Amino acid sequence: MVKATRVLVIVGLIIAGLWLAGRSVRPAAESSARISALQMAAPAAREGQSVNAQLVPDAVIVEATAVDVSTIPPGVYDPNNQYDRWQRGEIDLMENEGIVPEAEMEALRRASEHLPASGNIAQAQAADGPASNAPTAGVAFDSIDYTECCGGGGNVPPDPELAVGPNHAIAVVNVAFEIYNKSGTSLVGPTTFSSFFAVNANCTGVFDPNALYDEETGRYILGIDADGDYYCLAVSQTGNPTGSWWVYAFPTASGSDFFDYPHAGVGRDAIYMGANIFGTTSFKESRVWAFDKTAMYSGNPAASVSKALPDSEDTPQPLHLHGFAQGTWPSSGPHYFFTETDYDGAQYSVWSWNNPFGGTSPSKVGTVNLVTATGVAAGMPLNVPQSGGSTIQGNDYRPQDFEYRNGYAWSVSTIACNPGGGTVNCIRWAKINPATATVVDAGVYGSNGQYRFFGDLAVNHCNDMAVGYTKSSTSMWPSIFYTGRKAGDAAGTLQAEAQLKAGEIAYTAFDGIPRRWGDYTEMTIAPDGVTFWYLGEYSKNTGTTSGRWGTYIGSFTYADCTTGGPTPTPTNTPIGPTPTNTAIPPTPTNTPPANSTVLHVADLDGSAVLTNNGNRWKATVTIKVVNAGNQPVSGVKVKVQWSNGATGNVTCTTNTSGICSVVKTRIAKNKASVRLTVNNLIKSGYTYNGSANTDPDSDSNGTWITVFKP
Length: 710
What we know:
Elements: H1 6-20, H2 32-40, E1 59-62, E2 65-68, H3 82-87, H4 102-112, E3 122-123, E4 136-145, E5 161-164, E6 168-173, E7 176-181, E8 186-192, H5 193-196, E9 206-214, E10 219-226, E11 230-236, E12 244-251, E13 258-266, E14 271-278, E15 283-291, H6 293-297, E16 302-308, E17 313-318, E18 335-341, E19 347-353, E20 363-369, H7 370-374, E21 400-405, E22 408-417, E23 424-433, E24 438-446, E25 451-459, E26 465-473, E27 476-485, E28 498-501, E29 522-525, E30 532-539, E31 549-557, E32 598-611, E33 616-627, E34 637-643, E35 648-653, E36 659-668, E37 673-682, E38 687-688, E39 704-708
Parallel strand pairs: 3-24, 32-38
Antiparallel strand pairs: 1-16, 2-12, 4-31, 5-6, 6-7, 7-8, 9-10, 10-11, 11-12, 13-14, 14-15, 15-16, 17-18, 18-19, 19-20, 21-22, 22-23, 23-24, 25-26, 26-27, 27-28, 29-30, 30-31, 32-33, 33-36, 34-35, 34-37, 37-39
C-alpha cells in the first residue's frame, strides 16, 4: 500500500534533517529508554579492558550441565535483583550511560510532536461486543508481577516473553519464569533465573530473558543475557518443561564489550540469536549467532558461531519458524534476520545466513522502507501519559520479532504518528517476503489521544494475524489490548480492538520519570497453528509503590480457522548424530598427574578501571590454580566471595592454563577498595589445601586480595 504524498516526503525530510544535523553518520542503536536498561537492569558497559581479557572467537564449543527445574524451590532470592543493588549503592538509576545523548533523543521526540496528520492510518475502533472478523478470546489468567520476579527485591521493566507448546506455556520476565498448563494452573515457579542457571558459574547478573518453543522437535528453550558477557541457553531434555533441562553458557562479548538486548528464534538447523554490542563508550556493532540445536537437544558439547553486521544495522531479530504440524516448515534454504537500518524509523533490512556452521557469513537481501510502504510519517515514540500518574517511556522504533508463516515474515514496531488530532504512539506492522526483501502488506494503527506501544504479533496457518499491545492515555491506566486481521481484509487495516486486561492503578516504580515499561511483550501461537497466546503488561495494584507492573496471559482464535493437522508427538530419543564442526577444535583437557591431586592457589592478581564516566568502577581478579607439583589444573571450580565494599558469592572455572577470572562491576565511586577471598577449590578426585596458597608477586597472601579504586 503506497500512498506517500508530496507533503509527507517534505515533512519527513525536514524531520530527518533536524536529526541528522546533530548526529554522526552511524546508527544510534539505542534509545534513551534502552540506555536506561544498561544502567538499571544490567551491569555497566565495559569502560576499560582488563589486562586478562581475551577476545571471544567467532566459533566456540560449550559443554552442557543438567538441571531439574522440579527440584528448585519457587521464589529463591536473587541477590543481584535491580532494586536491592540500587539500595546497596551499586547502581545509580539516574546515570546516563547511553550512546545517544538524552538531548538528541529529546530533539527527536520534539520533532515527533510536529508530524503531519495522515489519512493512511487505520483508525482504531473499540469492539462493541465480539467483532465479526477479530480474534475471539479464550483462556485468560494473571501471570508474574513485580512482587514475584526476584524472590524479594524487584526489577523494572519486566521484558515479558512467552513460549507455548501442546500442553504447557512458559512466561518469562526480568528475572524469573513460571510454567503453566493450558488452563492457567501454575506447575512450576515463579522460579528465579539465578537459581535455575546456578549450575553454570558464568550465568550470573542475568537480564533480558527469551522463551521459545521448537515445533519440529517439541523442545522448550530459555535464554538470557548474563552480565553482558554470556548468553545462557537452556533446552528441555524432553517435551515436558517441568523436568530436566540442558544448560549452556556461550561467551558473547570480548574485553570491554557489552552484549545487550538478545532476541532468539528457532530455525530448521539451529537456534538463532541477534544482539547489540557496545564498546567502551558507544554502540559498536550488532551481531548474529547460530547455536547447534541438534547437539544441545542431546546434551552434547554444542557449537556456536557468530558474525558481525555493519554498524549501520542494529537490533537483529532472527526469524522464528512456525508451521511444522501444517507441513509448511522450510526444509532447506537460509535463515533470515530483520534489522533496523540507520536508525531513522523508516529503513529496515533483511539478511540471510546459509549453513552458518560451514564458515559462511550473513549477506544482505535488501532494505525496505516502511514509511513509504505505509504512507505514514514515523517519528520517535513519545513518552506516554496515564491517568493520575507520571509519564511512561515509549522507547524507540526498533523491530519486535520476525515471525515466519507460510513463506512470509511478519514484524511490528512502535512509532509516533498523527491520526489527525496530534501525535500519539501507534502500532506499525509489516508482512515481508524475506527471500526478496519486499513488503507484501503493511499498516499503521492508532487513534487520537490514545497511545499504543510495545506490540507483538503472530500469524495462524490460515494467514490471519493477531497483535497485542499496551494502551494508555490521560483518561486511563496502562492496559492490555489486542486486535488482528483476516487474510482477506483490506490492505493495511486491522479490526476493532478489544481489552484483555484493564489497568488497576496509576503506574509507578522505584526508577525515575519517565518510568520504564516493556521493553517488549510477546504474542506467539501454539503448534496447532490455530491458537494465539499473548503475554502483555498492565499496571497492577501490587501493594507497593516500588513497582506496579503485572503481566497477564490470554489466548485467542479465529472461529473459521481450524487445526491444520495433528501436532506430532515430540521424540525424546536422541535426535541423531551431532554434526562435526571440524573447523572448531574441542577444548583439550588437562589430566593431572596421578601423584598430584592436591590443589592450591598459586597467584591472585587484581586490576581496576573506572566506568560510567568515573561514576563507577570495576574490579577484576584473576586466580591461578595448580597442584602440589605446581602444574596448572583445568576444570577447577573456584568459589570466591566479595566483601569490604562489594557483596556476592560467585564462581569461575579454570582453563587449560589453570586460570580463571571474576569481575565485580558497578562499584560505587565512594568505595576506595574491595576484597576478594577464595573460599574453596572444587574438582572431582582432588582436595584443596588452602594453607599452601601463595602469591609470587606478594600483592596478596594467595587466599584474599584487596583491589583498590583506580
